[in-house]
Amino acid sequence: MALRAPDPPDVPEPRLNPYLMAHEAAEKDYLSAWSSGRLAHAWLICGPRGIGKATLAYRMARHALAQKDADSSADMFGAPPAPTSLTMSAEDPIFRRVASLGHGDFRIIERGWSDSKQTKRKTVIGVDDVREIGTFMSMTPAEGGWRTVIIDAADEMNANAANAVLKILEEPPARALLFLVAHNPDRLLPTIRSRCRRLDLRPLTNAQVMTLLGRYRPDLSPAETTALAVLADGSIGRAMALEEEGGVTLFRDLMTLLTDAPRLNITRLHALADKALKGDAFRTLSGLLSWWLARVTAEGARGGLDTFTEVIPGERELARKLLSTATPAAWADVWDKIGHLARRTDAVNLDKKRSLMLMLMAVESAAATGKAA
Questions:
Q1: Domain map of the chain by residue range?
Q2: What confidence score (pLDDT) does residue 81 get?
Q3: Which pLDDT tens digit goes with each residue over 6-59?
């Protein structure tokens, strides 16, 4: 009997992940502030989803929790040397206690559960979720070091929650650190942003995404790894989600359909739209269509497609064909319409097949008439 291949390793949740790639500069900034004695009481960690912001926040929090009072950590030779890395073994007691959410000086604030079975999270972080942060941070650290709180993600706080956090930032407690993870920091109150030390994390390179895919999904073929790295747009989180959702196959089907523009094949159109009814396929397909149009529009506005990286063969020619039928501004209008329809479909639970067909018909109309419908 043939042996079953082992399952690929799961990507650890940020609190369980001892590994981080590509954000050494941000770690250096934090460690430099720590060593200089000019440590900010709040850190705003910004960047696109899925690039390691929360993982970095946990590394920073664990580092702080590992530091004790100078008097207690010094010996006859003085204080220990300043740390040069945020790396901590997954076997370290502090790492394990944070991972299990069992450290007395650590708290994580996330969107709460909307049901008793904990299958779906709420859409926002409410004031009840952050109400106890001020009291917790103002208490004397239980282990003689620091108290740390991570809010993931801070831009998901509603107005009341944001105002409650602002009050803490206005009178920051001693020996307490607050780490705010933000996918879209512009959604935060300007007064919150101004009271934080900001770290802007850049998207990963395609090579870095491929390296991480090799680490977490060594079973993938080189061609699929390369395709996912391009589609992921610098996010290992997005790459893993696309792999799980069959994103490469869906993208190939989408490109095949668009090849027929300006008159889409009705049989292919219905077949692809039918797939939108399965699981998260609608979100994946609408996201891929929006991403691709934005990419084509940006390249067209810059005057050419010479640097356009193909996910599948023939993609560059398809992009050139669509740009010859309408201006980049017209395709930007189509992109905007698709985004609006995707958000509305998700918000009020519209028919997913019909919504995807409307998106694709908007592309067809622009290719036929030279302008958005």
A1: 14-200, 245-369
A2: 63
A3: 444 567 899 999 999 999 999 999 999 999 888 999 999 999 999 999 999 999
Burial letters for 327-339: b for 16+ Cβ neighbours within 10 Å, e otherwise?
Answer: ebebbbbbbebbb
Question: Which secondary-structure segment (H or E) carries 176?
Answer: strand 176-182
* 186-203: pLDDT as tens digits: 999 999 999 999 999 999
Nearest to 41 by CA among 161, 134, 157, 132: 134
**28: nearest Cα among 83, 76, 98:** 83
In this structure, what are the phi and psi dihedrals at residue 24, rounded to the nearest 5 degrees? -65, -35
CA–CA dist 116, 223 (Å, integer): 42
H or E stretch at 179: strand 176-182
Q: Tens digit of pLDDT for each residue in 83-125?
A: 678 999 999 999 999 999 999 999 999 998 877 777 778 889 9
C-alpha distance across the termini of the chain, in Å = 59
Statement: 14-200 belongs to CATH 3.40.50.300: yes
In angstroms, the CA 71 to CA 55 distance is 30
β-bridge pairing 106-109 and 147-152: parallel
Torsion of CA 263, 265, 269, 272, to 10 degrees: -130
Q: How many CB atoms lie within 10 A of CB 306?
A: 8
> Can you give the pLDDT at residue 56?
98
Tokens at 182, concatenated: 């933000």
User: Mean pLDDT, to the nearest integer, of 331-343?
Assistant: 95
**Cβ contacts of 8 within 8 Å, gap of 6 or more:** 216, 217, 218, 219
**Tokens 């359909």, residue located:** 257
Closest CA to 235 of 18, 17, 54: 54
> For residues 148 and 65, is the Cβ–Cβ distance under 8 A?
yes
Specify the amino acid at residue 364. Answer: E
Beta bridge partners of 31: none
Those residues whose C-beta lies under 8 Å from the C-beta of residue 47, and which sit 6 or more positions away, are: 53, 183, 200, 201, 202, 203
Alpha helices, H only, the chain: 24-36, 53-66, 70-73, 93-99, 127-130, 133-138, 159-170, 190-194, 206-216, 222-232, 236-244, 247-258, 266-275, 281-301, 315-325, 328-348, 352-369
